[in-house]
Design a protein that fits this description.
Helix content: 25-40%
Strand content: 15-25%
Strand order of the largest sheet: 1-2-3-4-5-6-8-7
Number of strands: 43
Shape: flat
Number of helices: 27
Structural class: alpha/beta
Length: 976
């Protein structure tokens, strides 16, 4: 909304304060500044507020607003006086206002840093979280304008408003004065306020998806009058699935005399329907969608599935149409799946919704599926159906203009019918939020992701989201840190999803292999080794093995405390007449299911070759039934049942075994476990996933092992060591950065000079070995005398920097003669000193050369990286990454997760280096970029890690105005 001429041009209308938010009940609303154009809206809003709410606001009967009141409440300078409104359908449903005051409580201007705040919410919308959302946004506005505290006077009877302030999580003081409660809130965000904000966001966004997936009534807008067409197909699929709610067919072209279609009521518009419609499926041409959306909004529809194409996938004009579609829907409080969507499915018995183009609704199961591609969605539905797997829910979001994978994670986290979340993503609109949500969800249930468009550097057509420049390898590492199971193909996604949905998590990497084919067993054994598992020698039952032999062998393997999982291999067995028996799959499946059901809770997978009916029989164990559950431990592992051993404990002592794939002295990645509700681990009796190739079964099992390990470690999160606080000068560093950037910093930033780098890093306990310029041989000798021999002579020209292989570095020069000789050789070989920019540096103790970097991506946030210097990281890409802030466990895992890590730990008889000092360096650098977002990039290269201590020989730092941190601001839906 544009400002009017009456508003001060010095304080222009702050359009960046506008935001779409999801309220507690899942509906959306818009928050924006109040302007002088809002006088009529304000009066209409006030007339709809009860006398009691007016009394609570003004502490006296106040039936109507005077002209002076209206002028005061609609005229703001957006600095000392600010008003925000929450709107739905363009009308106010709530307002908040602050006025800056001085110590005496009188109107003031900066530098006064306190403001009086007051709220008013329509009675019909109280209880939806309107005031809580307004408090978040008005607090952010106040902080932006230099206000640090809010003061509020509340009547003791106004318990709802007192609760809003009390539950916000801000540091506050409360007193009782002159018959009212006086509250003072410190607006600096706290851990508690941020947790409250994210908890509200999670519940609201989960509820918004739940409203879409569990409607009480559905209208298909654009239902064709004749069979065929998108709308008629969706209507047919809704009816075929047995949707438990009410269904309506809507088409403005229906004949006036048409009252039913396919047995459901037919209408020309939503206005003809006597009751509210919860969900509308829109299947009309794009140019008619705005009319349909307006009809939905005016008649109280809660959500939309837009199947219509012709939006951002068609270019810039379509992208603007898509943005307008989202703006229009949100203005009415509706969320959108699509446009260009394939549809949604909910198999819950109480819903049975198939509002999609899928001709057959999948069986009921425990897997939730989200996809950004209709074609991939079709393939996944088909693949899961073919493997006998059921779904709990399915969303194909198309252009994902509104509801996204992040929303699906919010829903999956709370959905009791979903045990595994599968996501096919082609773009990440908010990577920082995705990793946060994925980490929380993965702490209670597996999240499996396939990322399409990994190497294109652009988003797919239709995905109007910011493009992240993070390399795919970095994205993969960050997902792993968050507990996400990242796979490369949709086939691998299905393979992993089936195992995780049907089997308990393995306690470790020890795998027993048994079957009736020695060759297939050896292939499985090799595949296990390739995936980092610890296979036991295969048990060959021979081709004469009967189903009972399989049952006995599997039961014995499951009871063996030295194995954590079992892979069964099976080929057609030979009958007495010498012919291969291929049709007894059901018998073998029953034998395997019986053994698995009677043994300890360990995962079992089957690899089969041409055994008719085996896969179907293994998957046929009631995919529609709710699973049998076992209580879990605090670590998320199933507790032991009588007569069995809990996963994660040894058979004899009950103590946790060593970390499955790494030495226990080398911690692996972990992330904090959030407050989560009690969870259960599903085990559906008899369901055993079957695979047509050993490699696929082993890969799925390996992913389960790594995920189970992450879950165990996530139960005891890492910490940022407190001892760092005593050696870090955070205020001094902030002042130095302000000085270096200057009063008007260049948005592009500036690199720091060598001495500036040393001073900045030194304030965080990161010493950089000094270098002295050597423009000629005499200067080199003088520098060496100052630093002390032995010294190194290096070129710092960009094309030669860190390139010892090109002859630009001379090491261990013991005296002046050797230095002069090296200087001459260097300039004779590579060029003039003015081109080479040589420097002299004192020698460091010998060790392993490494490189440590930190950088800020606008979308994903700050990222810490580590690798060995030179070819391993530059040529082979052997670099590990973690999100900042890094914990002690993150730092330990970071240096151990590169392939060349053995070099640091005494490879081939070399002396192990001081990895503890290296971990401390990583933590210090992480703390620096986390404390000071103006530090947008740091490169420490090389960092020499010796048996005792480390030496930073080179460093570069770039400062810039910090990018915005949307994850720390108030809740808001993205606007792409």
């Amino acid at each position: 909304m544009e400002p009017t001429p009456e508003q001060s041009p010095h304080h222009a209308y702050p359009d960046h304060w506008e935001a779409d938010v999801v309220l507690r009940d899942g509906g959306t609303a818009r928050i924006r500044p109040i302007t002088t154009d809002d006088a009529e809206r304000l009066v209409s809003f006030y007339e709809q507020v009860s006398d009691e709410s007016k009394y609570y606001r003004f502490f006296a009967p106040y039936p109507r607003l005077s002209d002076r009141d209206v002028h005061r409440f609609t005229h703001h300078d957006y600095v000392d006086r600010v008003g925000l409104a929450v709107t739905i359908g363009g009308e106010f449903i709530g307002t908040v206002r602050y006025d800056r005051i001085n110590e005496q409580g009188r109107p003031a201007s900066a530098p006064a840093d306190e403001a009086e705040v007051a709220f008013l919410v329509q009675d019909a919308h109280q209880g939806r979280g309107v005031a809580s959302a307004l408090l978040e946004h008005i607090a952010a506005v106040a902080r932006e304008r230099g206000i640090r505290r809010f003061a509020a006077e509340v009547l003791p009877a106004n318990t709802k408003m007192i609760k809003v302030f009390r539950d916000a999580g801000y540091t506050q003081q409360r007193s009782f004065e002159d018959g009212s409660v006086h509250l003072t809130l410190d607006l600096e965000p706290t851990e508690k306020s941020l947790a409250v904000q994210r908890g509200r966001e999670q519940r609201a966004e989960a509820r918004s998806v739940q409203r879409l997936l569990a409607p009480g009534s559905v209208a298909v807008i654009g239902t064709g009058r004749t069979p065929g067409g998108v709308g008629r197909t969706v209507l047919r699929n809704l009816l075929a699935a047995g949707f438990t709610g009410r269904t309506y067919a809507v088409n403005r072209a229906f004949d006036e005399g048409l009252t039913t279609l396919d047995g459901v009521p037919a209408h020309r518009s939503l206005g003809e329907i006597d009751e509210r419609v919860d969900l509308a499926v829109i299947a009309v041409p794009a140019h008619r969608v705005p009319e349909a959306v307006a009809d939905c909004g005016e008649h109280g529809v809660q959500g939309l599935v837009v199947l219509s194409a012709g939006y951002a996938e068609r270019g810039s004009a379509g992208r603007e149409l898509q943005r307008e579609l989202v703006r229009q829907a949100r203005s009415y409080g509706m969320r959108i799946i699509g446009p260009n969507a394939f549809g949604i499915i909910n198999t819950a018995e109480s819903v049975r919704l198939n509002a999609s183009l899928a001709p057959e609704s999948p069986a009921r199961g425990r897997i939730g599926l989200f996809t950004q591609s209709g074609a991939i969605g079709i393939a996944l539905l088909s693949g899961l159906h073919r493997r006998g797997a059921g779904l709990s829910s399915f969303i194909s979001a198309g252009n994902r203009a509104d509801v996204s994978g992040n929303d699906f994670l919010q829903y999956s986290f709370e959905d009791p019918d979903t045990d595994v979340a599968l996501l096919y993503l082609e773009s990440l609109g908010n990577p920082r939020k995705f990793t946060r949500l994925a980490r929380r969800t993965a702490a209670v249930k597996p999240v499996v992701v396939v990322k399409g468009a990994r190497h294109s550097g652009t988003n797919p057509p239709g995905h109007a989201v910011p493009v992240s420049r993070i390399p795919d390898a970095t994205v993969s590492a960050l997902m792993r840190q968050a507990g996400v199971i990242r796979v490369d193909t949709v086939t691998e996604m299905v393979d992993a999803g089936l195992l995780l949905a049907d089997q308990p998590l393995p306690a470790g990497p020890r795998v027993a292999i048994l079957g009736n084919s020695e060759s297939l067993g050896l292939l499985t054994y090799d595949a296990c080794l390739a995936e980092g598992l610890r296979p036991r020698p295969p048990i060959d039952l021979t081709t004469a093995a009967s189903p009972q032999d399989f049952r006995d062998a599997l039961a014995e393997a499951l009871a063996d405390g030295t194995c954590d999982a079992v892979i069964v291999t099976a080929i057609p067995w030979v009958g007495e007449n010498g012919n291969a028996e291929t049709g007894d799959g059901e018998v073998l499946a029953a034998a395997l299911r019986g053994a698995a059901a009677g043994g300890p809770a360990k995962p079992v997978a089957v690899v089969h070759v041409e055994i008719g009916g085996l896969a179907e029989a293994l998957a046929a164990a009631s995919s529609t039934a709710a699973p049998r559950t076992r209580p879990t431990t605090l670590a998320g592992r199933p507790a032991a049942t009588p007569g069995t051993t809990a996963p994660g404990a040894s058979a004899t002592t009950g103590t946790p075994p060593a970390s499955p794939t790494t030495d226990t002295t080398q911690p692996t990645a972990a992330t904090p476990t959030p407050d989560t509700p009690p969870t259960t681990t599903p085990t559906t009796p008899g369901r055993i996933p079957a695979y047509p190739a050993a490699e696929r079964a082993v890969r799925a099992m390996a992913e389960a092992v790594k995920y189970a390990q992450w879950r165990r470690q996530a139960a005891t999160p890492g910490k940022v060591p407190e001892f760092l606080d005593d050696t870090i000068d955070e205020p001094g560093t902030a002042a130095l950065i302000d000085t270096l950037l200057g009063p008007a910093p260049d948005p592009r930033g500036r690199p720091l000079a060598h001495d500036e780098v040393r001073e900045l890093l030194g304030r965080y306990g990161i010493p950089v070995r000094p270098t002295l310029p050597a423009p000629d041989a005499e200067a080199a000798v003088a520098a060496a005398a100052r630093l002390g021999y032995p010294v190194a002579l290096k070129t710092t020209a960009p094309h030669l920097r860190h390139r010892a292989d090109l002859g630009g570095v001379r090491l261990d020069l013991p005296d002046e003669e050797a230095l002069r000789r090296a200087y001459g050789e260097l300039t004779d070989l590579l060029g003039k000193p003015a081109e080479l920019l040589p420097v002299v540096q004192a020698m460091a103790p010998r060790g392993v050369d490494t490189v440590v970097r930190a950088s800020i991506d606008a979308a994903a946030g700050a990222i810490l990286s580590f690798g060995l210097a030179g070819a391993p990281s530059e040529l082979l890409g052997d670099t590990a990454h973690r999100l900042v802030p890094a914990t002690d466990r993150d730092a330990a895992e970071l240096i151990r997760s590169i392939k060349a890590a053995p070099v640091l730990f005494g490879w081939r008889g070399s002396a192990p280096v001081d990895t503890a000092a290296l971990e401390e360096l990583l933590l210090r650098l992480s703390r620096l970029v986390d404390d000071h977002p103006e530090v947008v990039s740091v490169a420490l290269e090389p960092v020499v890690v010796a048996p005792q201590g480390i030496t930073v020989l080179g460093a570069s730092v770039r400062l810039a105005p910090p990018p915005p941190r949307g994850d720390l601001g108030p809740r808001r839906l993205p606007n792409y």
